[in-house]
Design a protein that fits this description.
- This protein is an alpha/beta fold.
- It has 2 domains: about 150 residues, no CATH class; about 60 residues.
- Strands 1-2-3-4-5-6-7 form a 7-stranded parallel β-sheet.
- Helix 8 links the parallel strand 6 and strand 7.
- It is globular, with a radius of gyration of 19 Å.
- It starts with a strand and ends with a strand.
Length: about 250
């Protein structure tokens, strides 16, 4: 069941995921004409949607950086207070996404979370690709934050399979994700569109389990492939490990 959530999107990512929604080895060209005509767009909200590649391209490609709002921690907390119903945190979750939220932004989060308006925040989720190590300082900060009574920290790791267009050795980093488990709750999810993707997910989960990962794993059968893969996904056990199937 879903929960009321505030999404905070950060700019910048180490991946482009150019092959999502396309056949193997194809790369999207949808973003190029948008970049070429970037002067036609006055703000982030004016940018068009794309059908292939990263669906959050405007938070990924550096050409769009000037269209993203630059806000101080105080301005961010003020905006959050305007959005949530009681002008203070109750049952809402904070989801920090991107881009890749664990890039250089790690050094900025303590200032944000220490703001007095964030004191009653109870749950934080980082939506990450699972490739960024936590800095010692931020790891220490999160560990202390998560130990407070009633608070919960989650890492939602969307590990990128070869179908994304990213290289396996750069995208599947079990040792990084296992470190997240030292700090909070972690689950893995894999976007699958073909039987080959399911096989890749099975291989990836094996690598994560071998490194000591204990959290749940989710298959997300996306787009037009959902109906045709539903039965096959339900039969897929991801090796000998229990698997949760997300057909959203």
């Amino acid at each position: 069941m879903g929960v009321p959530s505030v999404f905070l999107r950060t700019f910048g990512c180490n991946f482009r995921c150019p092959s999502f929604g396309l056949h193997h080895n194809e790369k999207t060209t949808e973003v190029l004409p948008i970049i070429q005509n970037i002067t036609n767009y006055k703000s982030y909200n004016d940018l068009p949607l794309v059908k292939s590649g990263c669906d959050s391209y405007a938070a990924v490609y550096p050409e769009f950086k000037d269209l993203s709002p630059m806000l101080t921690s105080e301005a961010i907390t003020d905006r959050i207070m305007e959005i949530i119903p009681h002008n203070e945190w109750k049952d809402e979750h904070l989801v920090i996404t991107g881009g890749e939220p664990l890039l250089g932004w790690q050094r900025a989060y303590p200032d944000l979370l220490n703001n007095s308006k964030m004191k009653s925040l109870k749950e934080i989720t980082f939506e990450t690709n699972g490739t960024q190590k936590l800095t010692p300082e931020f790891k220490s900060y999160l560990t202390k934050w998560n130990r407070e009574v009633g608070k919960e920290l989650t890492f939602s790791v969307s590990a990128k399979l070869p179908a994304s267009g990213e290289k396996w050795e750069e995208a599947i980093l079990p040792e990084v994700v296992c470190e997240y488990e030292e700090v909070g709750t972690v689950y893995l999810k894999f976007v699958v569109a073909t039987e080959a993707d399911i096989a890749d997910a099975e291989c990836a989960v094996g690598a994560f389990r071998s490194a000591g990962f204990k959290g749940p794993c989710i298959l997300d059968a996306s787009g037009r492939s959902r109906k045709c893969l539903q039965f096959k996904c339900k039969k897929c056990s991801i090796g000998s490990y229990e698997t949760w199937l997300a057909l959203q």
